[in-house]
Structure formats: C-alpha cells, structure tokens
## 1
Amino acid sequence: MLDSHAHSDRIAEILEAHRGLEGPLLPILHAVQEAFGHIPEAAIPQIAAALTISKAEVYGVVSFYHDFREKPAGRHVLKLCRAEACQAAFGNSVADRAKEKLGIDWHETTPDGAVTLEPVFCLGLCACGPAALVDDKLVGMLTPKKVEKLIDEVLK
C-alpha cells in the first residue's frame, strides 16, 4: 500500500490531468479508483478542495454509485446480474447460493481477501441469464450448482 504522501501526489496528478474538463468529478473518481483499486478516504477532501465542492458532495457520489469502492476489492470480483431478466430466470437462488458459499453479502469481501461479491444491473446477457462477470470473464446460464463450481474455480 502506498503511503499517504504518495497517495496525495498521485491524486494531484489525476486532478491536474482532468483540469478544465466539464463535469470532472466522475472521471476523476474513476481515475482514482483505477489507480488505487478503490477511493481512499484521504482522496475525498483533496478532490473536494480541487473542485471547490463539499466533501459531502464527493462522498455522496462515491457512496451512490455501486462501481466505486471505499475499500480495496478482493483478488477476484464476482458480479452477479440483478436485472429483471436474470431475476426471472431464478437469479435470486443463484445470488443466495453465492452469498452462502462465500459467507458474505453484497459489497463485502471474504475474510481472506479472495473474493468480493457485487451486484450489477445488466451484463447484456439477458437471453442467457442468470449471468455473472468474474473478473473480466462473462458467464451465463448460471444455476446455484454452477455458481458454486465457479466460486470453487476462483478460489483454487
């Protein structure tokens, strides 16, 4: 993990790269998350000061959008589709099995840091639901048994 001075320097570089951009908050937050894997708490006041907005406004955006993390993700990220088509194809039973198998809930990471479980609202595989994204790999036609096998493969 980088020290706070290194965090601050990197965030300053990101802010400079986005200077003059109209509506820069979301692009800045995406760049910070790409740089650190999450939005460090110390970044919020630095971003707020640079954009002359309140820390509450920055935090509100970070906490509103599910793609932003306040803590680093696990080594693997399992995103399960929660859109209507996947839910209609028994996506809830797949999600329940994944939570049970991992012992965590949405937006949590297993204690060993192996897997973070996140909901996503459409992966574009509506005809092949329930669907998931494991790291960068799309998987469709999930069942509770298939999601369990998928988790076992990720944990190997």
## 2
Amino acid sequence: MRASVLLRGVVDLLLLIVFVGMAVTGIGLYLAPSGRIADSIGWTFFGMDKDTLTNVHTYLGFIMIGLVGVHLAVGFRSMLVMLKSAFKSSKAKVMAGLIIPILLIAVGFQAFSAYTGEEETTYESYDSYYEESTNSTVYITGTMMKYYTVQELAKEFNVSTDALIEKLKEKGIEATPDEKLVEIEYKYDLDREEFKAMLEEIIAELRGENG
C-alpha cells in the first residue's frame, strides 16, 4: 500500500512537470511565426527555436503517455470505485465530467488542424506561385526574401533604393535601406507570396520608368 501511495505521488509530480513543459512549448508553438520566417529572423521562445520547441513538445507528449498509463494502472481500481459511487449519487455530474473533457479535446484538435492546415496552404501556394512567376520579367527568389535588405534588393535589379522605399511607403509599408525583407514581412504580417508579387510589380515599374 505504501509503495502504491509513493508511486502515485511520484507519477503525479512527474505528470505536473511534464504538463507544465508541454504547456510552455505549446504556447511557444502557437505564437511562433511560420517556419521560414522563424528561421530567418532567429525567433526563439525561452531560448528555444521553433524546431527545438517542436521536438521537446513531442518528446514530452510521449513521456506523458507513459506516465498516464502508469497512473491508470496503479489507480484503476480506485477510479472505478469512485466512479461507481459518484454515478449512484449524481448521474448528471458524472456525465458532465465525461462530456466536458471530450469537448475540450475536440476543440483542441480542431484548432491544431486549422493551424497545421494554414502551414500546408502556405507551402502549396508557394509552389503554384513559383510556376507563375518564372514567366515574369522580374523574379525575386526565396533566398532574396530571406536574406536581402531593401538596399541589396534594389541593387540586384539596378533600381534606386530611395525610389523603392518611396513606392513601399505608398503602399503603407515603412522601410529603411538596411532592413531585411523578411523583417518587413514579419513586422507587417504580410503573406510572403503577396509581398513578393508587390516587390516584383514595384521593381518592374521602376525599371520601366528608368528605361
């Protein structure tokens, strides 16, 4: 009996620690920008980048599965006794106690599906956009979007940096010559493909004016 009580206490403590870890990493993953932006700007959450958060969250999830299994094995009989006693005294409370966790799990699953769906849509749209953009006179690569500053982009296509900044300002985007494109994208919460199309349109316009 004493061993069982000690084991339950240890398991409960470990479950609490793992739960806190999963809550922290889960919040970090929810707040994290898309993978490409997170990598480009060196985004971290409590010193962990997005890949680390994902790995830690996954490993903690497997640990929790094992701990829950041990917890159920040790306290299964007690759980049955308590459920029978509660069911006899108040069936409505027991049903509510079962339904509420199921609803919370369902809502969480829907939120996770929506989040991952947005990530997949972003990458799919990138592929289709690449095919359309290869036929244009100006094409900005993904590498440029990740690493180029506004000045470097202007130099790449032989247009005026000041003119490019002015055109961006007309579209409601304040930028400086040394500011990276990915930083602007993240600051204004821009869709990467739409931002690329905007820059290509501006550069094509500027080159037409110079020509």
## 3
Amino acid sequence: MNIDSGLNFSVLLGSLRKSSLNAAVARALPDLAPPGITITPLGSIGEFPHYNADVQDEGFPAPVLTMAQQIAASDGVIIVTPEYNYSMPGVLKNAIDWLSRVSPQPFAGKPVAIETASPGLIGGARAQYHLRQSLVFLDAFVLNKPEAMIGQATQKIDPESLQLTDVGTREFLTRQISALAALAKRVRE
C-alpha cells in the first residue's frame, strides 16, 4: 500500500471529560495529519456498559459492535488517553474488555499508536505501559517510536478554547502520525 494512496486512522479517546486535555489532543489530530491521511474519531466508550459475560451472552451492545466495525475498517488506530492511578482509566479498560471479545478481533494485526497527555512531567507514561500490555494480548501492532507522552499539557493546551497550541507538540504528533502510516504500510505488504 502506498501511503500517498490514502490511509484512514480512527481515534479512540480514553477520557469522558468534555474539557479533557486528551480530548483536546484527539481533536487536533485530523489537522495534524500529513496529506493522504484521514483521521476520524470513534464513538464514546462511555456508551459501553460495564463488561459482564451475562450481558454478552444476550448479545453485544450496539455501540461495541459499531466501534469494532469501525476499528476493523480502519488502517490504524490512535488511542489518546489520560493516566489514572498509574494506569489507564477504567472506562478504557472496560472498552478493551468488550472489544477483545468481538470476533473477528478488530485489533488483531492493527497498527496502533498511543498518545497520553498529563499536567505532570512524565505525560502518562505508566498508562502507556499498561495499555501496551493489553494490546499485546489483542495482537495489535503497537508503534514503538516515536512515543507521544505529552507532559505539562496544561501549558500546551489553551484553557479557554481547549486547543492544542504548542507548535513543538503539534509537529511531534505529525511525525508520530507519519510513523504510524509507515507501520500501516509495512503491515499491509
């Protein structure tokens, strides 16, 4: 696959807050995509019920199936998430638990980039570590470099408009999207 032929990446947001720093990063991604790459947000993981095998036995909830289909149809996924208590948020883990049970598994063989933003210095590194563990189980191809851990994000996102304004961070995210596109190309070959 030629990168210039067009790639479509989906964005999975691991936060439910409207004023989330990570939501601001996720909203910026379509404008940061290099030519030939489209980035589309997935629905809210807040629409997923708590995972319960009894509920699954009655049938997968529609939001789970819709997201699984969107992930399967995409050329790659960008997961943007905060770090909660040294790990990923429970709502994101719940979404992964649901999506892991869909057959065929939508993340299997799928290129995935991870982005975290935090007011702290290390920018969500511990959440990325735990998220990578889950993605290994799902047989996703997680982009190793560049890693996007946006530390001191409150200084890089305008508090009024909730727009990612830091030029260096914007340029770095464009480089990560390009690296994900290169990974997607290698996976397809």
## 4
Amino acid sequence: MARKLVVFDLAGELYGLDIFDVREIVKDTLVTRIPQTPEFVEGVVNLRGKIIPVIDLRKRFGFAKGEKTKDARIIIVDIAGQEAGLVVDSVKEVAAVDETTIETTPDVTTVNAAFVEGLAKKDDKIIIIIKLELLLEVDEKEMLERMQ
C-alpha cells in the first residue's frame, strides 16, 4: 500500500508530511511578529482573511538558523484541528512511498524523536516522516489557538 507524502527540505535533510495533513503550500510571505511567543513561533500571516500562526521548523527542531531563499515555503497544515504554517527551506515533491519500507526511528536522530513517525526509503534517499500531532505540546497548541 502506498502512502503519499509532501516531501520538503530542511537543513539539508528530507522530511515528509502525510498529504492529508497538508492544506496548501504558499510562498514565504510577510510574517507579523507577536510579542512573548516561543522562539520557534515566527508570528502570524493573513491568508485570505484568516490569521494563521507560523512555526519555523528549523528553530523548532533546534537547527542553526539558515538563510531564507526564494525557494522557502510555508506549508499550511492541520495539527490536531489547529491550522498552522510551517516554514521550510523548499518543497520537493509529492512522493508515494510503500508503507512496508517505513522503518521506526533509530535512537539517535538529528530531530527530537518524539516528532518522528518513521523513516521512509525512496530511491536512494531517506525521508524523515513527521508526526504533526506531536509537533507541539498541549500548552503550545493552546497558545497558537489564542493567536488566531
């Protein structure tokens, strides 16, 4: 059985989100900063009249700040009923991966393993599959909800 993933680049690694969790992909746009939010929260964007909180995945995962390029995108996702934007370096493709090739996460990874559902093999590449529902703590989800 094939599973479709939206594959994106972040800090030189490939990550995937289940296509059913992705609402849309937009070009990196002006983000309005909100005071006293966690460092990984960039702020909010106005997307067709709807205020959406934006999370910088580099910061969320503890990676070094990278240069934003013209390829940067904001992936609008649903995190347990909460819409949010995820800033990524670039979106690569929608890939179909065989569910039987998805392996559990090894103990040592570059990302907090709580966020990682597993590792998919596609051609000669490894795609780290993100568990959106575990991306934020309960209090962080509530804070994002108040931002909308």
